[in-house]
Write a structure and sequence with these properties.
This protein is of the alpha+beta class and 580 residues long. It is built from 18 helices and 27 strands. It has 4 domains: 8-29 and 81-244, Rossmann fold (3-Layer(aba) Sandwich); 250-316, no CATH class; 333-393, no CATH class; 407-554, no CATH class. Strands 18, 19, 20, 21, 22, 23, 24, 25, 26 and 27 form a 10-stranded antiparallel beta sheet that branches. A 7-stranded mixed beta sheet has the order 7-1-8-9-12-11-10, sandwiched between helices. The longest helix is centred in the middle third of the chain and has 21 residues, at 288-308.
Length: 580
């Protein structure tokens, strides 16, 4: 049964809990049952709050016990640095989160490297602020290592919880913020009463280990004590603060569904099917087609895991998507071309006498349209006014254009050289749907950019043994009328594809003989393809999704099928009408 949510936050938290499955807790002072008899057996009050390695902590037990002195690297205070392992382990297990531990010692020379290996791929990293007694340097270095590694991989959601006995927290947060700035990370904002640092994809939250004794601490910039049993809930809430969007919630819950089905999927592709795959590969003229078929089959199983749970309907459907609508402070009017007066849009169409009908793009109208869509049979808008309507879902027209272009690129491309889509580490083969560019300099120093769309069929882009000619459609940069949006040097470039066969070009490229394809090579800081004789270098820009590439191919083929007719010019012009 599809779940109904009452708010975007509730929807988001549900998705987070479906996604978060792994955590690593890194602390140099674990307390196990064997090591905590003295400090946890009675209520103890420290006589000194000094932090000095090798100091003696004088503890005051209950009245019936004698005074006890405990030799410790760090005095045991009302603000403990120790981590109580058992209740934390039990708490995470109760939330279906596998929590691993790394307990470094002061003698470990490779604390950061080991911690980095443990934390790199988990959903949540929880670490003590002092991974050596009195030393915050390893924790800072670990955080920087994780952030740099994420940058190199194209970015990822990263939650880091600093779980510490240090107070005040706002001072520790400021300390880390200054350190990150010194390392070139200037984009972090201070949030959560100066107890957190937030970037678009990263959240670093500070929290305190629970105090000993009966006192209750006030939550605020200086402190935020989180009980052992409440640590998983705190982690999930902070992850919810990191994953803000509707589409991120959809992605989180979908990935969670695939994770839940992982071992089932492994059983589906069992060993007894190996022979069938080998027979498929051996019996066809293009063995690599069998590889692509298996990739498609596995991806379809992922889709089934998501579809069977109706996650698309639950997160993105009409009852949930309305929570993400954020109208402008001053809603604008969107002019309506035709409205038949039916009941479907009666509540949102304004019909002033003697004036054009319009939609006031406020919260009610935008939510209504997001729920039921725009039926042109009942309510018709001109193309420019539809664009105007779409822009009303954003704070400003400038933001709208940037985000709509970003979304368009996501729907168009499997990979990009510049953008949020990862281009992949392996070489990319030149084939139909690949967009390339080249810069040429004129005698006057001016730079001309050329963008081409490769139209080579996939079967003609493999098993090559010599330099091979590839056909390309030319494109022109056109900000008003375009088919493609590419991202180059941090700027959106709008391209109109010339589908006329007479304007196509053929370019011969060098073939990589071991792989028998034309593949990308690195040239300076760019990656692209060399032409025959290595005379020209064409930079890789993006690769269209297969169906998008096929769509352009179909349009090109249609141009080859054009038939010249002598007929009524008036009739021809009457059919070429922008208002249709």
């Amino acid at each position: 049964m599809t779940r109904l949510f009452t708010s975007l936050r509730e929807l988001r938290q549900d998705a987070v809990e479906a996604f978060v499955r792994t955590a690593i807790l890194i602390d140099n002072e674990p307390l196990t049952e064997q090591s905590s008899d003295v400090v946890e057996g009675t209520i103890l009050t420290a006589q000194s709050a000094a932090y000095r390695p090798g100091a003696v902590a004088r503890l005051e037990p209950s009245a019936e016990d004698s005074v006890t002195s405990v030799k410790a690297q760090r005095p045991i205070t009302n603000h403990p640095h120790q981590l109580s392992v058992r209740p934390v382990t039990n708490a995470f297990a109760g939330r279906r989160i596998t929590c691993g531990f790394y307990f470094p010692s002061d003698e470990d020379a490779d604390i950061v490297e080991t911690a980095f290996s443990a934390a790199k791929h988990v959903d949540v990293t929880i670490l003590d602020w002092q991974l050596r007694v009195g030393d915050t340097a390893p924790a800072k270095e670990l955080i920087v290592r994780l952030l740099k590694d994420d940058q190199g991989a194209g970015g990822r959601l990263r939650l880091i919880v600093v779980y510490t006995g240090e107070r005040p927290l706002n001072d520790q947060c400021t300390n880390l913020h200054n350190h990150l700035i010194s390392q070139g990370f200037n984009q972090f904002r201070v949030v959560d009463e100066e107890r957190g640092l937030h970037d678009r994809d990263v959240l670093i939250a500070f929290a305190n280990k629970p105090t000993r004794g009966p006192q209750v601490e006030q939550v605020g910039p200086a402190a935020r004590p989180i009980a052992w049993s409440e640590l998983p809930q705190f982690v999930l809430e902070q992850f919810g603060n990191l994953a803000q969007g509707l589409l991120q919630a959809f992605s989180l819950k979908s990935i969670g569904a695939v994770r839940d089905d992982t071992h089932h999927l492994l059983s589906v592709f069992s060993e007894d099917l190996d022979g069938a795959y080998l027979a498929q590969r051996a019996g066809i003229g293009s063995p690599t087609d069998a590889e692509e078929m298996m990739v498609g089959l596995l991806a379809s199983e992922f889709v089934t895991s998501i579809a069977d749970r109706e996650i698309g309907k639950e997160i993105l459907g009409s009852e949930s998507c309305i929570y993400a609508v954020k109208p402008r402070n001053n809603p604008e009017q969107v002019v309506v071309k035709e409205y038949n007066g039916g009941e479907k849009y009666k509540t949102i169409v304004n019909q002033p006498k003697g004036k054009s009908k319009f939609i006031q793009a406020d919260d009610t109208s935008l939510q209504y349209l997001a729920r039921i869509g725009l039926d042109s049979g009942a309510l018709k808008l001109k193309a420019n006014n539809i664009k105007h309507l779409k822009r009303q879902f954003f704070d400003s027209d400038a933001v709208a254009e940037a985000v709509l272009a970003k979304f368009a690129r996501l729907t168009l491309f499997t990979r990009e050289s510049d953008g949020v889509r990862k281009s992949g580490k392996d070489p990319i083969a030149l084939t139909g749907g690949v967009i390339v560019r080249r810069e040429t300099r004129g005698e006057d120093g001016s730079v001309t950019e050329t963008y081409l769309l490769c139209m080579q069929p996939g079967c003609d882009a493999v098993r090559l043994s010599k330099p091979t000619a590839f056909p390309f459609c030319k494109t022109t940069v056109n900000d008003n009328c375009f088919d493609l949006v590419v991202h180059v040097n941090g700027v959106n470039i709008f391209l109109l594809v010339d589908r006329r066969p007479k304007n196509m070009s053929l370019i011969e490229f060098e073939v990589d003989l071991p792989t028998q394809v034309v593949k990308t090579e690195v040239n300076g800081k760019k990656r692209g393809f060399w032409t025959k004789g290595r005379t020209e270098f064409w930079e890789f820009v993006a690769e269209l999704r297969p169906m998008e590439a096929q769509n352009f191919t179909s349009q090109l083929v249609g141009q080859f099928n054009r038939v010249a007719l002598n007929g009524s010019e008036w009739l021809r012009l009457s059919g070429n009408n922008d208002e249709r």
